[in-house]
Design a protein that fits this description.
Strand 1, helix 1 and strand 2 form a beta-alpha-beta unit. The chain is an alpha/beta fold and 304 residues long. Strands 1, 2, 3, 4, 5, 6, 7, 8 and 9 form a 9-stranded mixed beta sheet that branches. 42% of the residues lie in helices and 19% in strands. The protein has 2 domains: 199 residues, Spore Coat Polysaccharide Biosynthesis Protein SpsA, Chain A, CATH 3.90.550; 90 residues, no CATH class. The longest helix is centred in the C-terminal third of the chain and has 17 residues. The chain is globular, with a radius of gyration of 19 Å. The C terminus is likely disordered.
Length: 304
């Protein structure tokens, strides 16, 4: 089973080597690593080309296309039947791909995508571990109000299915992961295994994980894109509106906050755990969050 590992990157000379070596160090050896440089201005190219392994391909975008454009570039040139995305500041346990491959081979159904459990790190310290159980085929509606799967680094996707659903949406500045998961789960079988084999890095430098202005804009666009689905479920409509309201607070967009304040209150009665989970973003938006103990977070938030 040949896998194309696609690593989008932009000005990540400090961490790109770790990601590449993480992919090359997999116990599943039948793979290629495609590093798509989204027009970096640092030494990213030099670092990648210093890797002495012919399985590594370096591709430079002539202009910056954003992370989704870089991922789509990688998918277009990928030779593998399967695509594994890896963010340039994330890394994998050495058996990550092997365990996913074994699951797919043993599955009685035709798997379209498979995710793993994950660990969050900030400044080299672990502050959260996923508690996700094995999931046999996600319901699409889950991704309209939640992201239990995590970022792109957790998933292995059949390339043919990825192309079938239209690839990644480059119009969304954030939330591209759940957008893809929703479309994949509507068209095929999407599974998860609980093994924490992916390490996701939370950065405090304006990256997507903590860029709440982009998340605010994306929440609006996401709701517009799936307007029909949200109209069919009042509680999901409330939750997404409350989501926009919370991001309005974090982004200091008070117009968005006050416009959606009533949905936050309604949500506290309809889905209190979901609304409480949203407030974790308030903690992650300040530097003090780096020092918050994981056990304290688990006390207050119902996290998977």
């Amino acid at each position: 089973m040949y896998i194309s590992v696609v690593i989008p990157t932009f000005n990540r000379q400090d961490v790109i080597l770790r990601a590449v070596e993480s992919a090359l160090g997999q116990t599943h050896k039948n793979l290629e690593v495609i590093v798509v440089d989204d027009h970096s201005q640092d030494r990213t190219r030099e670092v990648v080309e210093s890797v002495g392994d012919n399985r590594v391909r370096y591709v430079l975008n002539r202009r910056s296309k954003g992370a989704q454009g870089a991922r789509n570039t990688g998918v277009e040139i990928a030779k593998g039947e399967w695509i594994a995305f890896l963010d340039s500041d994330d890394w994998w346990h050495k058996e990550k791909l092997e365990k996913q491959v074994n699951f797919i081979k043993k599955s009685e159904k035709r798997v379209s995508a498979l995710s793993t459990g994950r660990v969050w790190k900030a400044d080299g310290k672990t502050f959260w571990k996923s508690k996700l159980k094995k999931v046999d085929n996600w319901e699409p509606k889950v991704f309209l109000h939640d992201n239990p799967v995590g970022g792109f680094s957790t998933i292995l996707i059949r390339k043919k299915k990825l192309k079938e659903v239209g690839g990644l949406d480059e119009a969304l500045p954030a939330m591209q992961d759940i957008d893809l998961y929703f479309r994949i789960s509507k068209k095929g079988d999407f599974y998860s295994i609980p093994n924490r084999l992916t390490i996701e890095t939370i950065r405090y430098d304006g990256g997507i994980s903590t860029n709440y202005a982009k998340k605010l804009e994306s929440s609006k666009l996401f709701m517009e894109k799936y307007e029909k689905e949200y109209k069919s479920s009042y509680w999901m409509h409330v939750y997404r509106k409350a989501h926009i309201g919370v991001y309005g607070i974090i982004s200091k967009r008070w117009d968005c906050f006050f416009k959606n304040l009533k949905f936050i209150f309604i949500g506290l009665f309809m889905c209190p755990k979901k609304i409480a989970n949203l407030t974790k973003n308030l903690i992650m938006s300040v530097d003090a969050a780096k020092q918050v103990n994981m056990s304290i977070k688990d006390t207050f938030f119902d996290r998977r």
